[in-house]
Amino acid sequence: MTGSADRPARVGAAAVPAGLHLVSTPIGAARDITLRALDILAGADVLAAEDTRTLRHLMEIHGIALGGRPLLAVHDHNEQGVAAKITALLAGGKSVAYASEAGTPLISDPGFVLARAAVAAGAPVLAAPGASALLAALAVAGLPTDRFLFAGFPPQPAGERKRFLQDLAGVQATLVLYESPRRVRRMLADLAEIFGPGRQVALCRELTKRHEEVLRGTPEEILSLLGEQDPKGEIVLVIDRAAPQAVGAAEVAAALDEALRSMSVKEAATFVAQNLKVPRREAYQMALARTKT
Question: What residues does the Tetrapyrrole methylase domain cover (predicted)?
Fold first, then answer.
């Protein structure tokens, strides 16, 4: 589906193709918005935002007039109802730009219900990528980025938070969490208890803003740096992956027996070596021996 050919272009703004445009907005510095995002905000038929005042202010900074266009609030408390209204607009060939208060829509922000409704209605859903606290924190943390898991906000009750961390403790990927400055010291204490000593953490605070700060070290070291005062501002925690667990010969043998039911010796050895992180030559020799017995 494309934009209506007879839709009049606004003065100074190109027409935006029909569909739902998920627009990323700055997490701090207003200049971090992309040129494409500005084009979409200037040319969309309808604007929607998690916080309409924030979007208005951003548009004013960049000289974009609302120009009488509808501006709809879409947040956690009304998303279901507004989604129906917006899908009707999309069905009518309108272009709708939706922006989070800061960062990328759907990433611990509203927008999922709206995007899912648009997909179900068969409307185009397009992303105008840009700022994201998740990616900014990964970039500056100094921890591996080849595999990571974004786990969002941890539960607030202490017991649920500890169970949440226990489920993540053995994950073989860098972990990224968002946390409130009021709870981050308790969170670090739980990390030290559940993940054990030595796990490296980066506490990223106020990314892209004037008081941006990254504290790196173990949970105990970061707690020491923070002292008795809760930090201020938006916080992202980046946590190093768990150390690989040693795999016993019995586990390798059992995995090979299962793989050999449907694979050749070579295929089974490669498959098990990759999944259990053991040397391929060792897995091959074991597989060969098991086929002979």
Answer: 20-222
